[in-house]
Amino acid sequence: MSQAVLYDYYRSSAAYRVRIALNLKGIDYESRPVNLLHSEQRGADYRALNPQGFVPMLEIDGHRLTQSLSIMVYLDQVYPEHPLMPRDPVDGAHVRAMALTIACDIHPLNNLRVLKYLSNELGLPQEERDAWYIHWIREGLPALETLAKPGAGRFLFGDEPTIADVCLVPQLFNARRFNVPLDDYPTLLRAEENACALDAFAAAHPDRQEVPT
Question: Which of 11, 20, 105, 143 has the most C-beta neighbours closer than 10 Å?
Answer without folding.
Answer: 20
